[in-house]
Design a protein that fits this description.
It is an enzyme of class 3 (hydrolase). There is one protein chain. The chain is built from eight helices and five strands. A hairpin with a 2-residue loop joins strand 4 and strand 5. Helix 2 runs parallel beside helix 4. By secondary structure, it is mainly alpha-helical.
């Protein structure tokens, strides 16, 4: 049952080294704003932070990116918490879903069949839907109409975090 306060273990997960390392592993940590060609030129920086108002070419320090990345995890984690049934989350599941949301968008993640299944208590099915469609084909692994193995690798990692501790 959802209370007014986020359970401590879930809140702590978003600030954990695992969350931070996972974010940087899949997003990198770029110290300059660049136009992401896989996202229609969306200005992107640090570990996947996006902002249409950011100026391409702006340089950032490592310390600035640390703070930006922490904020990104908290912002997207809060969005995931707002659309999920907390009793169906574990710290690792929250991290996996947060990393998915950072890449696919808050609305995209929250409205996905994966989150809907998790909310319905169909944990294994929902976690699997992060990486594969019901027919076994890759899910959320395309950009500009083309399959991207790097995205599928990421989806598999998010799926693994989501399933951590879940009976198969």
């Amino acid at each position: 049952m959802r209370g007014k306060l986020v359970p401590a273990a879930l809140a702590a997960a978003l600030a954990s080294p695992l969350a931070y390392m996972t974010l940087e592993r899949w997003e990198g940590n770029v110290l300059e704003v660049y136009a992401d060609h896989l996202a229609s030129g969306l200005p992107t920086y640090c570990a996947g932070r996006t902002d249409w108002n950011a100026t391409v070419g702006t340089k950032l320090t490592s310390d600035q990116c640390v703070e930006i990345n922490k904020g990104t995890l908290l912002e997207y984690g809060a969005a995931v918490l707002a659309c999920t049934e907390w009793s169906n989350l574990t710290p690792k599941r929250l991290i996996g879903l947060t990393i998915f949301a950072i890449n696919f968008g808050k609305s995209g993640a929250c409205n996905s069949h994966a989150v809907k299944a998790i909310n319905a208590g169909e944990i294994s099915s929902g976690c699997n839907l992060i990486a594969t469609k019901p027919n076994g084909q890759p899910n959320w692994s395309y950009s500009d109409g083309a399959y991207r193995q790097g995205l599928q690798n990421r989806r598999q990692a998010e799926r693994t975090l989501c399933l951590a501790g879940q009976p198969l």
